[in-house]
Design goal:
Layout lengths: L15 H4 L10 E5 L6 H9 L6 E6 L3 H9 L6 E6 L4 H5 L4 E4 L15 H18 L4 E4 L4 H15 L7 E3 L2 H15 L10 E3 L6 E3 L12 H22 L7 H18 L5 E8 L8 E9 L2 E5 L7 H26 L1
Parallel strand pairs: 1-2, 1-4, 2-3, 4-5, 5-6
Antiparallel strand pairs: 7-8, 9-10, 10-11
The chain binds 1,4-dihydronicotinamide adenine dinucleotide (NAI).
Length: 341
């Protein structure tokens, strides 16, 4: 079975075993973070500054990034940090980047859906991806900005228009759904969280978030009622954070953690490490008539090396799968229409 690598097997992070991990090959890797001054951007900057696979870190924002750059740069790790402020400095941030992570844009407030962010965030993503397509067309782009179900199709359309489209290099960051699923399942089943891996497929909004509990590692069993409760808990976890923050934004710390994990896996793939798997929302033909779908991926030197088939779903998962497809397809189309308007 292909098991995603949990925190304990990682280069940075959290376990003492990690720092002694042998790295297959470590080439210079420049990462650009667009939206680095924000709630996600700041802790993600710190986690990237601590990552041994990153050599250079470009922090870009339209506000507040100079201070974040000065602050982070004092951490005594080898990563070279530069801050870039405003559109006229965007080119400098992007030049030579191999991985671009985009959490630029507004977050939810209580009562909002991710789709409510579309009007503001779609334009931000479009402009940033246009610049990336111009200044570093070979880079991998990872979109954190919501609604991910629509911002990834926007990015793909922008790159198609520019003649730089490579579906293996555009990913929607849905890692937080996996991180949450692993945490909640470990808690419910009293397992060591570092051993738990739950694939989460579909999309990254409400009902489109489909945890495949039947494919969890190690295998876990739930009654039908528990399965429904656990699925809804994973789907609603973002909203729980939005409500708990009561108007002060959405998940930032757990999101930064999740994006750092996705970035690290991606850099490991770029470095030629074998068997690096993550779930991500990408273009694929895994589901007929659904051009974008979050699936389990094999990461490699060119980004997405392989999108894995969905595998067997139990009756509950199949029902959820069929029920959410119309919403997912509509969000995809909304992004495509916006990019082509
Ligand atoms: P925030 O408002 O704290 O930070 C956003 C940052 O983006 C700000 O520093 C802002 O100046 C910057 N920004 C705005 N327009 C920009 C532009 N044109 N170019 C560069 N930077 C720009 O928001 P937060 O909490 O960091 O969230 C960011 C995004 O991430 C939101 O869209 C949110 O919905 C999304 N998100 C995604 C999750 C996921 O699982 N994929 C989870 C949580 C949040």
């Amino acid at each position: 079975a292909q098991t995603s690598r949990g925190p304990s097997s990682r280069v940075t992070g959290l376990s003492p075993r990690v720092s002694r991990r042998k790295i297959v090959k470590c080439e210079a890797k420049k990462v650009a973070l667009l939206g680095a001054g924000g709630g996600i951007g700041q802790p993600l900057s710190l986690l990237l500054k601590m990552n041994k696979l990153v050599t250079e870190l470009s922090l870009y924002d339209i506000a507040g990034v100079t201070g974040v750059g000065a602050d982070i740069s004092h951490c005594n790790t080898p990563v070279k940090v530069s801050a870039f402020n405003g559109p006229e400095e965007l080119e400098g941030a992007l030049k030579g980047a191999e991985l671009i992570i985009i959490p630029a844009g507004v977050p939810r407030k209580p009562g909002m859906t991710r789709d409510d962010l579309f009007n503001v965030n779609a334009g931000i993503v479009k402009a940033l991806v246009e610049a990336a397509s111009k200044h570093c067309p070979e880079a991998i782009i990872q979109l954190v900005t919501n609604p991910v179900n629509s911002t990834v199709p926007i990015a793909a359309e922008v790159m198609k228009k520019a003649g730089t489209h490579n579906p293996a290099k555009i990913m929607g960051v849905s890692t937080l759904d996996v991180v949450r699923a692993n945490t909640f399942v470990a808690e419910a089943k009293k397992l060591d969280v570092k051993d738990v891996d739950v694939p989460v497929v579909g999309g990254h909004a409400g009902a489109t978030i489909l945890p495949l509990l039947s494919q969890a590692t190690p295998p876990v069993s739930f009654t039908d009622a528990e399965k429904k409760m656990m699925t809804e808990k994973i789907q609603n976890a973002g909203t729980v954070v939005v409500e708990a923050k009561a108007g002060k934004g959405s998940a930032t710390l757990s999101m930064a953690y999740a994006a750092a994990r996705m970035a690290e896996s991606t850099l490991m793939g770029l470095n030629g490490e074998p068997n690096i798997y993550e779930c991500s929302y990408v273009q694929s033909d895994v589901v007929p008539d659904c051009p974008f779908f979050a699936s389990k991926l094999l990461l490699g030197p060119g980004g997405v090396a392989k999108v894995l088939p969905l595998g067997n779903m139990d009756a509950f998962e199949q029902a959820c799968f069929h029920a959410m497809l119309p919403e997912l397809k509509a969000s995809t189309q909304k992004g495509i229409d916006f990019a082509n308007a």
